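Hello again,

I reread your note about wanting to compare the complex against the isolated chains. To keep things tidy I'm splitting this into two emails, and this first one only covers the full assembly. Below are the input lines as submitted, including protein chains and any nucleic acid or small-molecule components. They are followed by the predicted structure of everything together. The single-chain runs will come separately.
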Amino acid sequence: MAVCIAVIAKENYPLYIRSIPAEHELKFHYTVHTSLDVVDEKVSAMGKALVDQRELYLGLLYPTEDYKVYGYVTNSKVKFVMVVDSSNTALRDNEIRSMFRKLHNSYTDVMCNPFYNPGDRIHSRAFDNMVTSMMVQVC
Amino acid sequence: MEGLTLSDAEQKYYSDLFSYCDIESTKKVASNGRVVELFRAAQLPNEVVLQIMELCGATRLGYFGRSQFYIALKLVAVAQSGLPLRVESINTVKDLPLPRFGASKNEQESRHTTSYSSDAENQGSYSGVIPPPPGRVQVKKGSVSHDTVQSRSSTEQQESISPVVSPQQSPPTSPHTWRKHNRHPSGGNNERPLAGPGPFWSPFTEAQTGSSAGDTMWSGHSPPPPQENWDQTTVRTVASATTANEIRRQSSSYDDPWKITDEQRQYYVNQFKTIQPDLNGFIPGSAAKEFFTKSKLPILELSHIWELSDFDKDGALTLDEFCAAFHLVVARKNGYDLPEKLPESLMPKLIDLEDSADVGDQSGEVGYSGSPAEAPPSKSPSMPSLNQTWPELNQSSEQWETFSERSSSSQTLTQFDSNIAPADPDTAIVHPVPIRMTPSKIHMQEMELKRTGSDHTNPTSPLLVKPPDLSEENKINSSVKFVSGNTVADGYSSSDSFTSDPEQIGNTVTRQRSHSGTSPDNTAPPPPPPRPHQSHSRSSSLDMNRTFTVTTGQQQAGVVAHPPAVPPRPQPSQAPGPHVHRPVDAEGLITHTSTSPQQIPEQPNFADFSQFEVFAASSVNEEHDDEAEKHPEVLQVEKSSEPSASLRVAKTDGRVEEKTAASAPANAGKGTTPLAPPPKPIRRRLKSEDELRPEVDEHSQKTGVLAAVLASQPSIPRSVGKDKKAIQASIRRNKETNTVLARLNSELQQQLKDVLEERISLEVQLEQLRPFSHL
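Full-complex prediction:
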């Protein structure tokens, strides 16, 4: 049900970004880029001392009229940004959380692959499949 | 698969054909269209083809699994030999020639034969020691032995052999391979983006010269992808190990594309040892990365291989994982496309393979048959009795389990469910309500209520009453209820009752529903199975109602209503009358209490009415008027605008009167007590109640009782002018009411918790059923 999912590296460059439908890809790219500011703001707001206790799920970053942007940041400052369509009524918070959890799990699987160099773009097929499964429900 | 035994050549041939038909490269299902095409090409009459398909079970399954396909091929061979088609003939007929598929398949077959023979030639040329095997059958064996020989031999020797061999091979094989390429792209086999035969068979021929015999042998079966070209070029540059692997790989591919032969496995183990001497240890990711990078596969593919083979996702490879990874590397180098999921034969044996049935493989069909078998047992074990008697509750059996667990843990669950009990008169007698963690006394009360409600003549042991009750109402439930009743009554152990009660509640729920038609309910049809709690909540509420009615009618002095449930005493003359109606009342209560909201507002009714009763010494009419006055209030509170509300109120009045009468010690025979003011209205109310009861079905007596109880409170000031006894009676009634209300509250809370549990379980189920399946 997400329309766009992006994985941003610590240095704020995208490791993986995918959106459907394809024609709005640029728009979603831009949205994700702008949402990074909100992510940083939320992260810094929590304070440096609370890094350990900081919740990974950031919640709704900002809503627009068409869609909502959710954020999630890992302990290694890798950010997951998800754009969901606002018309998808009642995508509950815990559903978003579970989606992020799956994203995170897949990301760690990708990381575990010794052939993956951190900082490379993610080409893993399993990761692709998982992301596709999360985005397919867009009606 | 009926124990199909294939010779080696047949195995090879069939595997190739299956791969040919395996358009989607699932390694498990052969495309129906392609299979049919193939069979048509076998030049058999259509009836025979259909018969074959039926015999092999494809029509039964709806698709061509690998076993079905093999059986079908064997049957084609049988048919082509002119033998009658029988399932037994699959194994009994020996030395059956390979099935021949004419027309377009001629090339394939001829290619196969020639390739096989060429393989034999190659083998012969390779080893120089092993004479060319006489037939195809020998090819594999020869190759296997050859492989073993080669694996042991030096690298250079192999490499030198391959260039030597290849020129010989290329002339005879290239046409085959070319055709193969043509065939495969046209077949669209494997998800490779094959542009067309042109672009790759020319480089392929080039590469072929440099490639080892594996390439040509490869052409004999599964289609080499375009990447094979550079794969083969890289093959030469790869260490000998890889080359040896290739050759071995070819031999194994005939049987199962992903099965590891013994030599291969041994080789892999040796390689594992070079990295990690301990066979039970792990190869760290970095070491594995270096090792596999040597194979010169692209990092992306290596990454994918890693993803497939690192089954436990720990970043390290066990021996099994390493072998699987190595095997995949070899396969990839030989042109096999990497599967999306790990083939079952490569799965690390540490894992329960039955669960990994999702991996497409030959055992796919087995997996299918296995999984459904596993599913039902998993659901039923905890609820055997339930499932036996109530098949419709199977789906909710899991819920039951969870609920029973939860109910056992939640102590505050009150008889809320009882309030929601269906209007079935039978449900009133249902025991299961006590499932909740409510204190045993409530159970006792409920049991007694049921008992009293159903049979007032047996005030002693609830158990005694229950069986007859059950037999009266729900014979089917009787056994279950009896058990539950026993468990509840005997031990008053919440834990026991909780586990058994849910089942019974469910049973009773269904029963109640079944009997709902009998009772003159006004409530909606019984709730569906997924909401059993409500039903038994209803039953429990019924009990509660009965408690009230019983207490009031039987002048139990709140015995039944209070935790230390005392068997209801036989009622005085009033008893018979109320007795008769009590079941009806109970029914009415049940029906009425089908919705909890009704009960809550009913309580004020009780209060009102009880007040009325206590102080309604003046006249019945006055009291009736008062009641009537309070009726609107009650009605408003009740949110029920039924015209019979007044009747219900009156009814409740009667009940309240009964209750108040019961509370007062002197009320033992209120109908006959010397209390002048109260008895009169009570009597009248009883009468009216009797009249009303048959008319009104649903109105909960509990409501009436509560209303009466509540009514008694405001009337306290009035009682100042009344007898002291009346005051005391009112006090007692109030206390009783308090107790009742407290119990009601606990019940309601319990019901609430049940509903919440239900909700949680439903949410869990919903989550499971959502497309977001967890990884």
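For quick reference: The radius of gyration of chain B is 41 Å.

B.
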